[in-house]
Amino acid sequence: GKNGYQLFSHDMHKTLMDRLQLEAELREAITLGDQLKLHYQPQVSSTNDNVVGYEALLRWNHPTKGMLSPFDFMAMAESSGLIIQIGEWALIEACKKAKKIHVADSNFTRMAVNLSALQFNHANIVDHVKNALLLTSLPAHLLELEITESAIISNVEDAIALLFKLKELGVQLAIDDFGTGYSSLNYLKNFPIDTLKIDKSFIDGIVHNQKDAAIARTIVQLALNLGLGTIAEGVEHVEQYELLKEMGCNDLQGYLYGKPVSLERF
Ligand code: C2E
Ligand code: CA
Ligand code: CA
Ligand code: CA
């Protein structure tokens, strides 16, 4: 049409059909309820090596494809809008588990749950969070919501209002993948944020790359000066732990301490 043409190959057709099928299967998984799981990855204090929290990470135990990671279905869950329902479920499920851990473990300070940009910007997220806390009677300060810079930056005015509403519930707020989005120092001043989560891409190079080390050190200092906490993600080696501890990074998360697993297994 319009004096143009587009190539439509069998490969593209197959990709589209695969995606539509996966979407239908995810819809069914949500209805059935037992294929979606949360795995939990420990977060460890750099000062005393205690496990102080967990990040809840989504898994899909697909009937034929096996255990899928968010990498395999998150883009589709976002574009189809299914992430809203999944996210609502994940909040309740993570709060349930957090309540159990809280009763058993006095070192426990947080259950971190990821919020996607779509959830943050379009769903009734304040009600979802309020509801999860009410249903599980989890003390609000034990729930930390991880939000990426890109989710916030798409509509700054609304985001500020929303962050303050979430903060009013008493939950903690973390900026996820800090340093990789459209970081603006201005929002650190104006937003009610508790924690900066230093992105794995900086942690990867921290031991051998002076620039990565300088960025990580500067983020920790910035957070300290603003009264914010810091957590490093993707810590895999002892040398990274030693350097981050020396820098004053509060908490550490990564394969060095444990991969995400079911809580039963943990
Ligand atoms: P993220 O929030 O940045 O989560 C960290 C990812 O890094 C996780 O991948 C985790 O398993 C992985 N990871 C942790 N430590 C290490 C390490 O030492 N080395 C390496 N190589 N990787 C490490 P995962 O579980 O596949 O999750 C991928 C992304 O999917 C997450 O990135 C997050 O953006 C998204 N996601 C996961 N669960 C949820 C959820 O419940 N809701 C939403 N909206 N997004 C989720
Ligand atoms: Ca995260
Ligand atoms: Ca992250
Ligand atoms: Ca990351």
Automatic annotation (TrEMBL):
Output the superkingdom of the source species.
Bacteria
- Domain EAL, chain residue ranges per copy: 19-266
Kindly indicate whether the keyword Phosphoprotein belongs to this entry: yes
Provide this UniProt record's keywords sorted from A to Z.
Answer: Phosphoprotein
Residues folding into a coiled coil are none
Query: How far does the signal peptide extend, from start to end residue?
Result: none
Q: Name the chain's protein.
A: Two-component system response regulator
Report the source organism.
Shewanella ulleungensis
Q: Which residues of the full protein are shown?
A: 432 to 697 of 697
